[in-house]
Amino acid sequence: MELTESYTLPVSQQRTWEALNDTAILRASIPGCESIEADGENAFALSMAASVGPVKARFKGRMLLTDINAPQTYTIVFEGQGGVAGFGSGNARVTLEPEGPEATRLTYTASAQVGGKLAQIGSRLVDGAARKLAGEFFKRFSAQVTDEGGADAAADTAAPADDTASTDGADSESGDAQAKRKKSWTAWISKS
């Protein structure tokens, strides 16, 4: 899986860098994150609950920051195990570019591999879940770093720089269609 997106955040490059290296802000920003703790120099142990389509699991993993050039860029190398749900590993290159004194463009390119049940559900579903997770992360992250006007107002300020990367169309499906699709996946899994 390959994923590249850009977000404009309404804070300075230095503040964005500091927040990306603050475990309390990351824990509050990562959907389903249960814990994130320092585990050596530039390394973190992470525990989170996530669901991709019909597969729900608790993942435990590790992140290592490499190629650090503060406050412009670094690479995150990650790996995680989700028991019978499978595993994931990969890396993400994060770049911060100032857009004026109080705005920063964050661009990332991620590459990941999944195995186990996660790989069986199909790359399209995994890619969609990854995009949705990233979008939710940046809404929460922006709310954490701006801390102005409440979380709801701040969450709306983090938007993809490219509207084609948005998954709003998928979110606008009716609840009945989503429930029907969920039932069909559940039935398919229970038959296999």
UniProtKB/TrEMBL annotation:
A Pfam cross-reference name: COXG
Low complexity composition bias: residue spans: 149-169
Protein name according to UniProt: Carbon monoxide dehydrogenase subunit G
Region entry Disordered, spans: 149-192
Organism of this sequence: Paraburkholderia phenazinium
InterPro entries for the chain: CO_DH_gsu (IPR010419), START-like_dom_sf (IPR023393)
Source superkingdom: Bacteria
